[in-house]
């Protein structure tokens, strides 16, 4: 399914690029519009253990999978000679999945849990452009809107999601123009400055998950 989405994106991009009649009416115009994104969180499966006050293991908690990332929002864009600047204001959503194994008894089932993060993202990115291609870098600010679900460990699990977190991204893009309508295709890689489980506490102790929720996102923007 993921490969199918990527193939559709590539074919659509190729078809538009071949048929487009590109021309520039005002290269320094400020462009506003809608931006849609779809991608994946790149964290790998990872396992931590939970002990009690007597240092006996009571749970094994594994981060199994990070689901797709979806985003929608607004952007502004402007070129300055060979330089460009973009600001994005986006709603961003992704899920994590965890597997919990209990050591209390042999017959205790392994249980799967999901959690969902809802963020409002603000990004500023800039770089250079030539022949409709762009490359740039910039910071990303994630403001937590909501956190749902999580691991259910009685008297042990304490969720403490950050209200504000940060990342840094690199971006490669290609621009098309049809009269006053601008269409932009982008591939973004974001490196996150937090771990996949830094919001998970077992009592007063923070979990030992080390992986980071880095993302790769394909986006399409349309503006005027």
Q: Which features does this protein show?
A:
224 residues, mainly beta, Porin, 8-stranded antiparallel beta barrel, 3-stranded antiparallel β-sheet, 1 helix, 13 strands, elongated
Report on this structure.
Helices cover 8% and strands 63% of the residues. It is mostly beta strands. It has a domain at 21-43 and 68-94 and 117-196 and 210-223: Beta Barrel (Porin). The strands form two sheets. Strands 1-4-5-6-7-9-10-13 form an eight-stranded antiparallel β-barrel. The chain has a three-stranded antiparallel β-sheet with strand order 8-11-12, with no helix packed on it.
What gap, in angstroms, lies between the N and C termini?
A: 32 Å
Helix content: under 10%
| Main beta sheet strand tally, sense and closure | 8 strands, antiparallel, barrel
Instruction: Assign an overall shape.
Output: elongated
Strand order of the largest sheet: 1-4-5-6-7-9-10-13
Number of helical runs?
A: 1
The tally of beta strands, per DSSP, is: 13
Based on secondary structure, the structural category is mainly beta
Please give the structural blueprint:
Blueprint: H1 2-19, E1 31-41, E2 46-51, E3 57-66, E4 68-80, E5 83-102, E6 111-130, E7 133-149, E8 157-159, E9 164-178, E10 181-192, E11 200-202, E12 205-206, E13 215-223
């Amino acid at each position: 399914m993921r490969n199918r989405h990527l193939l559709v994106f590539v074919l659509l991009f190729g078809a538009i690029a071949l048929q487009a009649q590109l021309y520039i009416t005002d290269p320094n115009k400020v462009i506003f519009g809608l931006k849609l994104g779809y991608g994946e969180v790149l964290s790998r499966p990872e396992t931590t253990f939970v002990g009690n006050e007597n240092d006996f293991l009571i749970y094994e908690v594994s981060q199994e999978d990070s689901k797709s990332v979806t985003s929608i929002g607004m952007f502004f864009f402007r070129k300055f000679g060979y330089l460009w600047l973009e600001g994005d204001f986006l709603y961003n959503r992704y899920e994590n999945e965890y597997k919990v194994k209990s050591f209390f008894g042999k017959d205790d089932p392994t249980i799967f849990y999901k959690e969902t993060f809802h963020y409002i993202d603000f990004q500023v990115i800039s770089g250079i452009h030539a022949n409709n291609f762009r490359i740039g870098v910039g910071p990303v600010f994630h403001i937590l809107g909501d956190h749902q679900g999580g691991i259910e460990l009685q008297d042990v699990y304490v969720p403490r999601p950050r209200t504000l977190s940060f990342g840094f991204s690199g971006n490669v893009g290609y621009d098309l123009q049809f009269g006053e309508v601008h269409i932009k295709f982008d591939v973004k890689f974001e490196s996150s400055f937090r771990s996949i489980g830094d919001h998970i506490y077992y009592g007063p102790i923070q979990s030992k998950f080390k992986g980071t929720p880095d993302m790769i996102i394909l986006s399409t923007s349309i503006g005027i």
